[in-house]
Amino acid sequence: MSLAVIEQDVRPTGPYRLPSAGRDGVLRRDGEALARLLHDGAQPVVV
């Protein structure tokens, strides 16, 4: 099994904000970047 990482800077078509960080652990700080765990169906996706 191989794993690929794809990164792309995008701008949303309209105003949209993800919820702020809570104690559920789905938003993590990685240096200066923030990473949030979401799900697309059953697949976990980190944004």
Write a structural description.
This protein has 47 residues and is mostly beta strands. Helices cover 0% and strands 34% of the residues. It is built from no helices and 3 strands. The protein has a 3-stranded antiparallel beta sheet with strand order 1-2-3, with no helix packed on it. A hairpin with a 2-residue loop joins strand 1 (27-30) and strand 2 (33-40). The chain is globular and about 35 Å long. 0% of the residues are buried.
Outline the secondary-structure elements.
Layout: E1 27-30, E2 33-40, E3 43-46
Antiparallel strand pairs: 1-2, 2-3
In short:
With 47 residues, the protein is mainly β.
How many DSSP E strands? 3
**Tertiary shape:** globular
Strand count, sense and barrel status of the largest sheet are: 3 strands, antiparallel
Percentage beta strand: 25-35%
Structural class: mainly beta
Q: Counting H and I runs of at least 4 residues, what is the number of helices?
A: 0
Cα-atom Rg, whole angstroms? 13 Å
The secondary-structure element order is EEE
Strand order across the biggest sheet?
Answer: 1-2-3
Helix content: under 10%
Uncertain regions spanning at least 5 consecutive residues? none
Mean pLDDT: 80
Distance between the termini: 22 Å
Properties at a glance:
single chain, mainly beta, three-stranded antiparallel sheet
